[in-house]
Amino acid sequence: MTDETGEITARLETVASKVDRLSASVNGISASVGQLSTSVDRRFGEVGAAIVEQRQYTEFAYSQLRKEMQAGFAQMDSRFTQMDSRFAQMDKRFAQVDSRFDRMDKRFDRMDSRFAQMDKRFDGLERKLDAFIDSQAPRRSADAPERRE
pTM score, two decimals? Predict the structure, then answer.
């Protein structure tokens, strides 16, 4: 039995030695995992801080861009308002010019009417003169020769 006890003891010592080495290895791995966890936590903290900083900058930049765009749009609105005012003035001027042309057209129409009346009077006068001349001219026969002086 001493052999068996010695053999069991040797085996137990081997197992104990292996368990001790395994325990040391697990302790080393545990320490490495702890260090890695600390490092990962620190990195996540840095990344989180960087994300917060980037978000703050993005919000700031967006705010500045929004202000610039609003100022630009306000300026454009002002210019469009000025242009609308100028177009309104031009429309008013064109209306005045149209009114003047309408008055001139009416004057030309009256002048045309007067010229037409004068043409009628001249036509009447011409007929009367022709009739008077015809009544005053000596009557000739168709065969009589014309006189020359």
Answer: 0.45
